[in-house]
Amino acid sequence: MRARIVTLCAAPLALALVGAAPAHPASSPHASRPGQGSGHQVHPAADRSANTARTPARFAEVDLVSDVAGRAALTDPKLVNPWGLAMGAALWVSNAGTGTATVYTGGAGTARKAPTTVAVPGGTPTGQVAYSGDAFTVKGKAGTAPASFIFSSPSGAITAWSAKADPRNAVIAAFTRGADYKGLALMNTDRGTFLLAPSFSHGAVHVFDDDFRRVRLARRAFRDPFLPAHYSPFNVEIAGTSVLVAYAKRDPETGRPVAGRGNGFVSQFTASGRFVRRLASRGPLNAPWAMTLAPAGFGAYAGALLVGNFGDGWINAYNPGTGRHLGPLRGADGRAIAIEGLWDLEPGTAGNGGADAVWFSAGISGARHGLLGLIRPATAAGAASPTPTPMPSSTARTSARPAPSHSHPSGGYGY
Q: Residue 156 phi/psi, 5° resolution?
């Protein structure tokens, strides 16, 4: 499918986010537009994170689903190298290793797999968003209908699924040659709803309108002017009234992220792509991908910006208003929780995971297998003892390199 590019106006695109609370008290709210979307658009709790460093915070990792028998409470062979998470009525998971999306309900002690399994064409699914509006229509075997879930892929494909269009298969809705889409975010603005897709290969964030057409942006839109060479957008997230972009170091020869302590940045932009500031730089960042605001019940770190590293599996907390590093999430033993192959983080709900929890997805065993679970305050009822996790080595790995695609069940996209 050929990429379609449109220009919304002759002047640079000017947008303002709506439908979300401000990221911190200094942000000005906008009127909400109901019924637009809910996937990968995080809504902050009250900003309590400024004082969290005074209280020791301890958390527990609760493993719920894996393709490896005995690794977690529930075994699902489809859950291989799970990346993006999206919360609708249930939790949807993009499985890069099997080219599917699977659905789960419940939480600790009650996790169940729903009967819906969707085949995602166009390459390995990575990012994912949920959508509840009447745009982003797709045509399938059963008819034409608005998408409920939309996926991105390192092949450059944007695919979408609607039960009314095709209950078993997603449909390719857009394609950009040469793009390497590692993530996806849904942005509700005063000019409509847009998709943001970070292309790791292009070093740019691509924007699609609600007809899946590429939007022509100003040359500097969603570009950090202070970014060092060889860094590219690895993921994108909506936080309150801001767009956050996580950057990882890209190996120019292999096109893969380079792991190592300090290899990462998180920058803040307006909805129209204007650079606001660098929110987090280097330090504990290590190929950061996941970004979400912790739910109100998340103990001492309620309202904090959680940034998950693919490079070492650490989850670092930041004050979303000041960017101050609050520390990594630590287990009951005081050691930093490190989840191998960590990809996404998604706040739980009362019906799925719990309002005090954050879901995580990870491509364990070098992305050959998968793990889905929860991070909860260690004092939460039903929180299991944290799974033992080794501290990352102080020696930085030179590159996050998956096995060759011919022997890699994730199709070579374990990075």
A: 95, 5
